[in-house]
Amino acid sequence: MSMRIGRRAALAGLALPLMAGRAGAQGFPDQPVRMIVPFAAGGPADIIARIVARVMGERLGRPIVVDARAGAGGLIGVEAAAKARPDGHTIVLASSGAMVIQPHLQPSMPYDPLRDLAPITQVLGVPQIVSVAPNLGVKTLGELVAMAKARPGQLSFGSAGVASSLHMAGELLKLRTGIDIVHVPYRGAAPAVTDLLAGRIQILCADVPALLSHVRAGTIPALAITAEERLPLLPDLPTTGEAGVQGVVSETWYGLLGPTGIPADRLATLYAAAKAALEDAETKRLLAEQGGRVVGSSPEQFGAFIRANYASWGEVVRATGVRLE
Question: Which of 121, 204, 229, 323 is most buried, by the most CB atoms less than 10 A from its CB?
Fold first, then answer.
C-alpha cells in the first residue's frame, strides 16, 4: 500500500512541472506588461500610450506599466525593447523617426528596425499642418511656393530637430516643389511655434496638436495638411494634393512592437488586446483629440507598412542629402 502511494506521489510530482508549463502558456500574460515609451513623460507619445494601455490592460487581465525611456530621438527606448526577452511582457510604442527615418541617417544603428522588432499594430498616424508666419502675407500653398521660388534661400522653415518627422516633411515639400528654403532646427516643436508666431521663421510643418489651437484661433495661418484625406478636426483645411502639390504626404506615426521572437500565440494575444483598445469608443475619441487617424492594422499589415515607409523615406533622404549635424 505504501509503495503504491509513494509511486502516485512521485508521478504527481513529475506531472506538476508539466501542468505549470501548460498553465504558463495558456495564461499569458502572467505578470504586468511593460510598454516602453521612447520619449519623455507627458509628451504626445506618453499620452497616446496611456490612452491605449487602459483598455489593453483590461483585455489582457494584467496592468500595463508605461515606462518612459527617452533619449537619442527614440533610439534608446526602441533598442531596449528590441533587446528585451521575447516573451511578450515587453513592448514599445515606437514612432516613425526611430523606425524609418533615423536608420537612413545614423552611421551605426543599435538595432535593425526591419529584423529586430515584431510588429503588433499601428496605433495612430498624425499628419503635419503646413503653416506660415502671420506676417508673411500668403493664404494658399500655391502662393507660398510662388513666393519661395521668387526668393530662393530667403525663407526659412523650422522643425523639432534634425531628422525629425517635422524636418523631413519640410524636406519633402522642398523636393516636390523645387523650392529653396533654409532649415532651422529647434529642440522640440514648441519653440518653433513660438518663433513662427514672432516671424523669426516663415514656414513650419508641425504635427496637428502643436498647431491646432493656434489654427482654430486664427493666430497662425494653415495652408494645407500633409495627408491623403482631410482631417475631421479641421474639415476646411485642404490636403497638400488638393492645394496643388502632389506627393507631399507625411505623418508622425506610432505603433506597438515587441522584440523579434515573441511566440505567435502571444503576439496574437497582444494584437487582440490592442485592437480591442483601438475599437473602444472612449479610446478612439481621446486619440482623435491627438490630431490623428486611428489605425489598428494587423501585424502583417503593419509590417508591410513599415517596410514601404522605410523605403520611401530612404528615397527622400538620398534625394535631399539630409545629414545629421
Answer: 204
Partnered with residue 239 across adjacent β-strands are 225
The CATH homologous superfamily to which domain 127-225 belongs is: Periplasmic binding protein-like II (3.40.190.10)
The residues, any chain, with a CB within 8 Å of residue 30's CB and separated by 6 or more, are 24, 62
Fold category of 32-125+251-320 in CATH: D-Maltodextrin-Binding Protein; domain 2 (3.40.190)
C-alpha distance from residue 165 to each of 25, 162, 206, 252, 254 (Å): 40, 9, 9, 6, 12
Which residues are 279's β-sheet partners?
none
- 68 pLDDT exceeds 50? yes
Helix-strand-coil split of the chain, %, nearest 5:
45, 20, 35
Q: What pTM value is reported for the model?
A: 0.87
Residue 275 CB: number of other CB atoms within 10 A?
17
